[in-house]
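Long-time lurker. I teach an intro course on protein structure, and each term I like to show students one example going from raw sequence to a predicted 3D structure in token notation. This year I'd like something fresh instead of my usual example. Would anyone be willing to generate the tokens for the chain below so I can use it in lecture? Attribution to the forum is fine with me.
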Amino acid sequence: MTDIRPRRSALYMPGSNARALEKARTLPADVLILDLEDAVAPDAKAAARDQVCAAVAQGGLSPREVVIRVNSLDTPWGEDDLAAAAAVAPDAILIPKVSTPEALVAVGLRLRRLKAPERVRVWAMIETPHAILEAQAIASAAHDVDTRLSCFVMGLNDLAKETRARLTPGRTPMLPWMMTALAAARTYGIDILDGVYNSLSDEAGLRAECEQARDCGFDGKTLIHPNQIAAANEIFAPSVEEVENARAIVEAFEKPENASRGAIAINGRMVERLHADMAKRVLGLAQAIETRSSPPPCGEG
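-- Reply from a regular --
Happy to contribute to a lecture. Here you go:
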């Protein structure tokens, strides 16, 4: 199994807020999205770019995954954002308003010309009606090594704006779009993160959306406030019971007497080898979370 990187909680941090960027070094989020786009006013874009890139270059943000969200390349700031981000080499660069695979090809060509290290990945915001209609084609760009595509991020607020769909409890209008994007992501082996929950004071609503997204198959949730991290980290992590069940399934199939069997009974339930594969991923995710949560050795981090 390939290495699993937990992405339970992905916190947007406004790039223009120096205090927030410093606080990011202490937060238990799996992912920090340092934002140069929506969270930054036009007259603060250049300063935010310099501030975010300085923070990344300074280091000390690991083991958190560091992502810089740039402005679209068709804006006055996009090209400079991409060049600056490539120079400091975060874990990934998040591209907004991706509606076609060609947009990712263009980003990939620019990153190659900018000599961005190969480890720098590209994430794509899925936040337009066109992106939903082209989700499979966009996800297929992951098979082109030059695009570096490794993750979708849902932008449901923008989708609501452009479709006039209402943001209702339970997200009934959004579910078909969410599952379309998820199916596309899984077809081409990339991760996918749920959109943000807009209320900062409704813990029950946040937990309900996290549980819904987890049950739908999402890897984690994007967040807008540090107070939302704990719920996302808890809900998108395997429970103790899930880990115990997964371990029992894997151990049962590893027994010599089950080596050639496609299905076995465990605690009164028929379990197939596909369940063993699923169980191995649960154990891998649990191990990755445990490693992520462990303090680094002295002198690291």
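Some talking points for your students: The chain is about 45% helix and 15% strand. The chain has a mean pLDDT of 93.
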